[in-house]
Sequence to fold (319 residues):
Amino acid sequence: MYIFKKLKPRYKILLLTSMMALFAVSCNEVFEQDIAGKSVSIISPADGYSSPSNQVVFWWNKLDGADWYNLQIVKPSFSNVQTLVVDTNVVGESFSWLLSFGEYEWRIRPENSAYIGNYVVRSFSVESDSDLTYQVVPLTSPLQYDTTNNLNQSFSWQSIPYTESYTFTIWQNAYGGTTEHSSSVTTNNANYTFVTDGAYEWGVKAVNALTSSIYYTRKIYIDTQSPATPVLLLPAEDDTLTTTSITFSWTHSSGGSSITDSLLVSDDNGFANIVFSTATKASEVTTILSTGIYYWKVKSVDAAGNESSYSSYRTVTIE
Fold:
């Protein structure tokens, strides 16, 4: 304790920082189960498995003490890596991925914040077969749950061997609902112009003379309407407050895609000098301001990128 008191302030900070880091590491080691040297038990795909489907599901048994699992997939092998397909941490005991045809190896190891287990390696292949029954068409764009204000959409997907044509379909709301559009194309892309806003699901299946794949689908939301201008609630116009902790509140429109509001606070009514700004999905924000006169306004932006106009500004005085 005497030595600590004699240290210069900057050395005290360094010493305390080092001690806290050491304590954090020690706590991790105390509270995390030691899984060093342990490995998971693989369920599927087994070593040497040949998958008739290009959608491969990886399964393994839970290992006590593992918080997540590091999973890697390469083509064709770890001793001759030509493509690193996947390198990810998985929470849970399964993982699904769409793969092109060919030879692969995959490996998995258990991990937690203090310890790392051993990899288990397995090889497998994805068959190239004229039977499309178990195949899935990998979709490229738009992405899943895309929200856009563009009525003119381009859809694309990856090609599948032995396919003679693709059936491209759009359903209103969800798969199996009212068909918005359906066409047969020989390319791996299609264009469509939507007429009305709303939720849709689109999908593609591969077809040849004997078989067809199942549909693989994604959701898309079309929203071309700008949100309504927010209505300011508090502080009231020309309000005078005696606290520096100020809560700004307003209401915004519902319906359409999700709304994010942009709040601006300035010390001039031309908003040349912004003293506080934030984007929020809530309709209330609290911040600290010093004494003075302030002006504030809000606008809404939806997930499709449509913007409302800014509300008329209000004035608030903090004494």
Summary: The domain at 231-318 is CATH 2.60.40.10 (Immunoglobulin-like). The chain has a mean pLDDT of 92.
